[in-house]
Specification:
- A hairpin with a 6-residue loop joins strand 10 and strand 11.
- This protein is 54% helix and 9% strand.
- Helix 8 packs across helix 12, helix 13 packs antiparallel against helix 19 and helix 15 packs across helix 19.
- The strands form three sheets. The chain has a seven-stranded mixed sheet, sandwiched between helices.
- It is of the alpha/beta class.
- The longest helix is centred in the C-terminal third of the chain and has 33 residues.
- The relative contact order is 0.09.
- It is built from 20 helices and twelve strands.
- The structure holds nicotinamide 8-bromo-adenine dinucleotide phosphate.
- Nicotinamide 8-bromo-adenine dinucleotide phosphate binds next to helix 1, helix 4 and helix 6.
């Protein structure tokens, strides 16, 4: 077969199929392959008129249909299937060719695959793609890792199909090897935190104020016109405003209250533990989903004593404003923590990730797209080594203004029995970060007492140990 396709996609389930269509719609000739032929045939039959597709029945035929250097996007189930496809594909490729994994791979797998394929002079580009199936078709946010050389060949193609905000594509070279998948992982972690905080806001308005879902939908609709403007807030209004076709009840009242997870939130927290970055917002969100799924425990605990959750409030406008401010402040904390994790990962793996650029490519196409990402971009553009988003002037002021509301909401939730793990831990993180002195000094004292783990002093250099068992408890220098 003549070499005719500029890029190929193997794996034509929802994501691969839509990505291939997006590429074709942008004028790229796209080679198609799927393990089982039916998906390839269906794509050509249903959408063949959208652009130039070059279908194939085998991997050999697929590779032969690509112009050189070959560019292949793998869009299969992450894990074993990705390895299986690489095993079949790589021997057919030649030095300089580019293999892209667009699935939700664990970044350490991407590092392993990249190192392995580099030995054969193949470029392996682990690429985060966010936006779900709609994003894949109409413009996702794309986070490619891999070599700069691979990006030269691949970048223009990916940028042409990515979402675009103010003339800037939501796609940029993130950094070497696993950087793209790492950033996508943290993106998903932030998505977990954001959804948890939105859920807590809903719960407060529902249980604290006794509002109906349809009325809460209107509140979210209003919030979506200000600082909180974001895809997730927008679709919250849609979900809350939707009535179940069968029963006529609000759909949210018919859906089982046990949230599921595919694992990227958990990966984010596991990585954060390794890196020593306190991503409390993401962790609380992952654990809140886990708690929601523990049906037996929840049934057994339903009669535990405690307040009912109703605050008996008279001024609903003031309360709604408080919840809004608490949501905003907690969101800033969650994003600040996520960006801290990207910086820590970048340092640990020498990726040199530009944090402002990550905020830029998340402004469109992806699930956490939001107006305030512009502010995050500005903050990191102003100061690349910003120690925390919270100390950027804009966010310091915004969170400062939200603070009284935030404290009222968290205190009230504790008093009236509404679970707000996201709001409460975000506020504790904020207070921990700004504390003049932390009880960590006592922790060090205890560690020295029971385990001779030593401590440092505020007034002189070196490490010290108190001889706790000796009379007079003398202190010795351990340097
Ligand atoms: P799935 O994750 O459901 O995977 C189905 C595809 O994998 C099919 O093409 C299937 O081929 C292929 N496949 C499997 Br399963 N095992 C294979 C093997 N051993 N060898 C070759 N092919 C194999 O597809 P998806 O939902 O389109 O997602 C694709 C990737 O994109 C995943 O990694 C996913 O995590 C990621 N992602 C998904 C979303 C989303 O919203 N769905 C968003 C962002 C990223 P077959 O047709 O022959 O069974």
């Amino acid at each position: 077969m003549a070499e005719q396709a500029q890029i190929g996609v193997t794996g034509l389930a929802v994501m691969g199929r839509n990505l291939a269509r997006n590429l074709a719609r942008h004028g790229h000739a796209v080679a198609l392959h799927n393990r089982s032929q039916a998906r390839t045939d269906a794509l050509v039959a249903e959408h063949g008129d959208e652009g130039t597709f070059v279908p194939s029945t085998s991997m050999q035929e697929f590779v032969a249909s690509l112009e050189r250097p070959r560019r292949v996007i793998i869009m299969v189930k992450a894990g074993g299937p990705t390895d299986a496809v690489i095993e079949e594909l790589a021997p057919l490729m030649e030095p300089g060719d580019v293999i892209v994994d667009g699935g939700n791979a664990l970044f350490t797998d991407t590092r392993r695959r990249e190192a392995e394929l580099r030995k054969a002079d193949l470029h392996f580009v682990g690429t985060g793609i966010s936006g779900g199936e709609e994003g894949a078709l109409h413009g996702p946010s794309i986070m490619p890792g891999g070599s700069a050389q691979a990006y030269e060949s691949l970048g223009p193609l990916l940028e042409s199909i990515a979402a675009n905000v103010d003339g800037t594509p939501c796609c940029t070279h993130v950094g070497p090897d696993g950087a793209g998948h790492f950033v996508k992982m943290v993106h998903n972690g932030i998505e977990y935190a954001d959804m948890q905080l939105i859920g807590e806001s809903y719960d407060l308005l529902r249980n604290g104020l006794g509002m109906a879902p349809g009325d809460i939908a209107n509140v979210f609709r209003q919030w979506n016109s200000g600082d909180l403007e974001s895809y997730l807030v927008e679709i919250t209004a849609e979900v809350l405003g939707h009535a179940d076709h069968d029963t006529g009840k609000p759909l949210v009242d018919v859906i089982t209250d046990a949230a599921e997870q595919k694992g990227t939130g958990r990966w984010t927290v596991q990585s954060a533990l390794d890196l020593g970055v306190p991503v409390t917002g993401i962790a609380e969100a992952v654990f809140a989903r886990a708690l929601s799924g523990h049906a037996e425990q929840r049934v057994a605990a339903r009669e535990l004593p405690g307040p009912s959750g109703n605050w008996g409030l008279s001024n609903s406008d003031a309360f709604i404003a408080d919840v809004r401010n608490a949501l905003y402040a907690s969101k800033v904390v969650a994003y600040a923590q996520g960006f801290d994790q990207i910086r820590a990962g970048s340092e640990a793996y020498a990726w040199n990730v530009n944090l402002g650029a990550m905020a830029t490519i998340w402004r469109g196409g992806c699930i956490i797209r939001a107006r305030f990402l512009d502010r995050i971009r500005e903050a990191y553009d102003k100061r690349g080594d910003l120690p925390s988003l919270l100390v950027d002037d804009y966010f310091t002021e915004a969170v400062g203004q939200a603070q009284a509301s935030w404290r009222r909401v968290v205190a009230g939730a504790a008093q009236y029995g509404v679970p707000v793990p996201g709001f409460a831990s975000a506020l504790s993180y904020y207070d921990g970060l700004r504390a003049q002195r932390l009880p960590a000094a006592l922790t060090q004292g205890l560690r020295d007492f029971f385990g001779a783990h030593t401590y440092r002093r505020t007034d002189k250099d070196g490490t010290f140990h108190t001889l706790w068992a000796e009379e007079g408890r003398p202190e010795v220098s351990t340097d």
